[in-house]
Amino acid sequence: MTLRRRDIIAGAVATPLLTAVAGGASMPAGTVDKAPDNEAYWGTIAAQYDVTREVIQWENGNWGIMARPVMAAYHRQVERVNRENSYYARRGMVADMAAVRARVATELGVSAEEIILTRNATEALKTLIGNYNRLRPGDSVLYADLDYDATQASMRSLARLRGVTVRRVGLPEPATYQGVIDAYAAAFDADPKIRLVLLTHLSHRTGLVIPLREIVALARSRGIDAIVDAAHSWGQLDFDFAAQGVEFAGFNLHKWFGTPLGVGLMYIRKDRQDAIDPDMANEPGPGIDARLHTGVVDYAAALTVPAAFDFQGAIGTGPREGRLRYLRDRWVKQVRGLDGIDVLSPDDPRMHVGTTSFRIRGLTSAADNIAVAKALLDQHRIFTVHRTEVAKGCCVRATPALFVTPEQCDALAAALADLVPKMRR
Questions:
Q1: 87, 325 in Cβ contact below 8 A?
Q2: Of 256, 375, 364, nearest to 309 (Cα)?
Q3: What is the pLDDT of residue 31?
Q4: Alpha carbon 101 to chain centroid distance?
Q5: Nearest-CA neighbor of 234 among 136, 121, 367?
Q6: How wide is the angle at C-alpha 25 spanned by C-alphas 21 and 30, nearest 5°?
Q7: Cα–Cα dist 325/27, whole Å
């Protein structure tokens, strides 16, 4: 079948099953083959997303598009909160929000007493970093080149706020499972005064998934606490959070679960909550609620979380991860052997899911990679984003979503094959 350019951009690859749900009907029910390459099934999922037709959307790491049923639920909640106003806020909403919190805790596999909803992972993580109270002048803290910008800045602020020394480690590239563990071990050994480490489970810069459980255990054996950035891992990666041994973490729900914008959460294991000071806007007290004060938030967005979980739950965590891996591998396998291009996440399935960055060899500056992303957009209508701060040089990130098609993977690979010889120095 020959695909028109508009079809590739829109992801409108028609199948009988996709056509049946194109109007936004309910998800397919019953026993369904959810194999990563079953385009009939994944077409029905893609049809639940209204995606721009202007570009081929390969930048889905900023936030996730709400599926049609979730968008409809959000509209209903916005109307309700707006209509009932404080009458609802001061009577029924507290119980409804508690139910949302309980649902989130169940999905994560923890107690509702260990989480609190935030507006995003950044809010959660800067609260954990800034209010961590076990540091003393002369101690050290550690972060990595692949950590998120705002969390890096938060760690650096500890020098001023706590009088500590701030260390930075560049993670190996190309990375291996043991190589990443060894990099953290070497950094810990190089400064025995390290008391806190920031760990990003799945990097927004390159898509690298680190051996989280092993590194958390390694840190603990040296008396080092770990704060974990799980903004991109939960929902993209099928993993058991409770089994990782994590005590402090921040998450997003509007990335890989497709909730409305403005919903995240902070996790503090119950027996470690005294290590995080209460928020300055709260009266001191035990429990996680004292450790965050957001003021008024988008209540309708939070109330929509169960609808997002229901939609994603109908797909399943394993099939979702499998599809994202399949999409990533489809374009990566086509460009891995191209002369002059480096794919920055390894093919070890333990160390990647969907998000993956690349670099045209020799183009390492921010300006270089802005130019690469611009060429992809201007010449091929493929939208990506450049990433900075990687130790060995800047890069361009390509992040799939469940509405991305194999044809769009092929389009990305073909575009890179065209651009690499043109842009390489």
A1: no
A2: 256
A3: 76
A4: 20
A5: 121
A6: 80
A7: 22
Provide φ and ψ at 251, rounded to 5°: -135, 160
Q: Whole-angstrom Cα distance, residue 335 to residue 308?
A: 34
- pLDDT, position 32: 87
Name the residue with tokens 């190996």.
Answer: 172
Q: What pLDDT is recorded for position 30?
A: 60
Q: Quote the CA–CA distance of 235 and 238 in Å, as a whole number.
A: 7
Output the six-digit token pair for 391. Answer: 């130790």
- 3-state secondary structure at position 57: strand
Give 317's contacts (C-beta < 8 A, 6+ positions apart): 238
- Please state, in angstroms and rounded to a whole number, the distance separating the CA atoms of residues 36 and 315: 12
CB neighbour list of residue 221: distance below 8 Å, 6 or more residues apart: none
Q: How many helices (H) and strands (E) does the chain have?
A: 14, 13
Q: How far apart are CA 14 and CA 386, in angstroms?
A: 32
pLDDT at 26: 54
Q: Which residue has the tokens 């921040």?
A: 250
Reported pTM: 0.92
Q: What is the pLDDT of residue 9?
A: 53
Look at strands 382-383 and 385-387 and give their pairing. unpaired
Distance CA 113, CA 32 (A): 36
pLDDT of res. 146: 98
Q: How far apart are CA 157 and CA 151, in angstroms?
A: 10
Q: Which residues of the chain have pLDDT under 70?
A: 1-30, 425
CA dist 395 and 184 (Å) reads 23
Helices (H), 273-389: 299-303, 305-315, 317-335, 366-380
